Structure prediction request, 133 residues.
Amino acid sequence: MTMRHLVGAILIGLGAAFAAGCNGGAANAPEPADGGDRQPGEYLVQLATAETDPAVIRETYGDLGIEKLAALATRRPIHLLRVARDPGPDAMSSRAAGVDAIVHVQPNFGYSTQDGGSDADTSRGMGAHGTAE
Prediction:
């Protein structure tokens, strides 16, 4: 996946997130076009500010077995979260509803390029690239 495709996927995801609203919008977010698949156990978590300590994510979802927590290279404070025991998008959003430091939670969807070029990677979601591990 090229940087252009990554940026496009992030913008699509953010647009859906803000269109759906905060805290709980993931259940109402539209499915990605062209057969995008939800990456099991992976979520994009937006924090209130860049200064918000990502430890709030660990506190909110730690009992689900956090396998990965990585800041994405975006202008907004968005983190890729992968949990071992995925309760589903509705439950993830419900947990965040009472946490002011978490603005939005949505599933991480996999996308492929329209041209089907060799850089298309349909096995991973948009959070798989551009992360700081």
Observations:
- Confidence is low (pLDDT under 50) at residues 2-8, 16-35, 117-133.
- The beta strands are 37-47, 66-72, 78-83, 102-110, 131-132.
- The helical segments are 3-20, 55-61, 89-97.
- The two ends are 18 Å apart (CA to CA).
